[in-house]
Description:
The chain has about 550 residues and is of the alpha+beta class. It has helices spanning about 15-20, 30-35, 40-55, 55-70, 85, 95-120, 125-150, 180-200, 215-230, 235-245, 255-260, 310-315, 445-460, 460-475, 490-500, 510-515, 550-555, and strands spanning about 75, 270-275, 305, 325-330, 345-350, 360-370, 370-375, 385, 395-400, 405-410, 415, 420, 425, 440-445, 520, 535. Helix content is about 35%, strand content about 10%.
Amino acid sequence: MKKIHLYIAIFIAISSFWACEIERKPFQDLEDEQVFSDELGIEAAALGTYALLKENSFMRPYHFHGEYGGDNIALSGSTTDALYYMYNFQHTVNNGHLNSLWVTSYKGIINSNKVIENAARGTSDKMDHIIGEMYYLRGFFYFTMVNIWGRPYTQAPTSNLGVPLILDAEPDENNLPPRATVAEVYAQIEADLKMAAELMGNYDRPAEELRIFASIESAWALLSRVYLYMENDTEAAAYATDVIESGKFGLLQGDAFTKYPTYVPEENSETIFACRSLEDEDNYGWMAIGGMYANIDGVGWGEMYASQPYRDLVGQYPEDLRNSFIEPQYVEHGDADAFGNPYNFITYVTDKDEPAGSKMFTTAYAWYEEGIWYYYDGASWPTVETEAGVDGKATKYFIYIDGVKTYVEPGAEMEVRNGYPKYYVTKCSNQGGQPQLWSPVISRLAEMYLNRAEANAKTGNESAALEDINVIRQRAGIPTYDAVPAGRTALELVLEERQLELAFESHRRYDIFRNGLTLDRTYPGTHDRGNAILTIPANHNRVIDFIPETQILAQPNLVQNP
């Protein structure tokens, strides 16, 4: 008899098993027939798929790939951790993070397949909902994989390769499917999510479970994103509207929004679906996703900072609530040292000698008196000049270096690491007061407004696009748009707002490349080390990763990416 080997979610109550026939055997060693003989076993098997979703072997590389491959972040040093090669685009065939994601994704897919194949539809609305959840999770795993190992859908999807499709509960070890095309994988994702929505339509989980288990709304939300990536803008907008008009979700406002990551998902009105992390049990400490972004109460590496271009963007409006997710780390001491030198500085970006196009931070002593900043140029104290902000934007400061106007940031002395000012990111930390506990967000309501805005911008409905952008800007506390500013397009405004709003949530890399744009890394950060790739156009080979070598060796009919 075939046996099922499942990862069972930690939050299954032990008492649930005491009252049933399977109490004397470890659950993961039960025969398939026993596991799927009743609703309890099926539900437990489904929970096992959720447990795989939040495994560090999946969630960390999922986050690394989508966020570290963008321009919101800057690493302050080199590292032997394979995350470095997702950050600097110097890909390797033996990246352990990506191999773990590949393996864990297929475990989740096969776990989903087992429930889909063995659970009987039509026995109850609840059982149909659980089966629908498995279709959703299978679609999500495939969507993650095809975006890592397959080129953007907008680039010849019927010929470019994605990943193998495995839809059997008990795959034949002799039947090793080749890589399906990107179009074929997307077609499977689309079918899975539509089936998920259909099966989850007649049952509502209790309110406290709405945002931590898949729902019809989470299926709609992911369909909206999938169609956006496919440039099926009509469907992308329609599914986003379905979520928005469901009435089940609301944007957090004011101070509540600035505390978004501190709330558990089930108590967060904006969250559509999140991978729930449990207090004490899922706190990965230094190895948590937020651990790379910040050291909080002595926990975390604090090595990956908000990038200079992202800080420039969000800092245009000091009142923008999204500034609250970035915490500059200042040195604590008096106003001046023993020699009378001030502890204020100006910081600015200058060219490095090599490689060409690379940048570094430079500082100079500064002094602030009666509303005026001065800086020390090595011989005297010239004035830091100002440029008034336009349309409510912040005042800019600048100096001239060899006749070149150079913008600077004046302020108190900051802590630095290897010459990089520490701008901690706290958007992935502090859930429930635990420094590095966080429930990664898969979908939230703000994305739906931005999905619909992008779809409308691409179909020429500028007024509708601006209306949705303004919902997000108004919530952030910054001026809204009456019209598209001269010299800009509605799509540019949407993509800028997506960068501002969805930063550090694993969207940015994909938003750049699926829109045919070039990733610009000409800003300070250690992505300029070695064989640096500072600008990556959407058609570059490094836009997608290598298939892990261990998978190529195990399955010889897999074709490696160039």
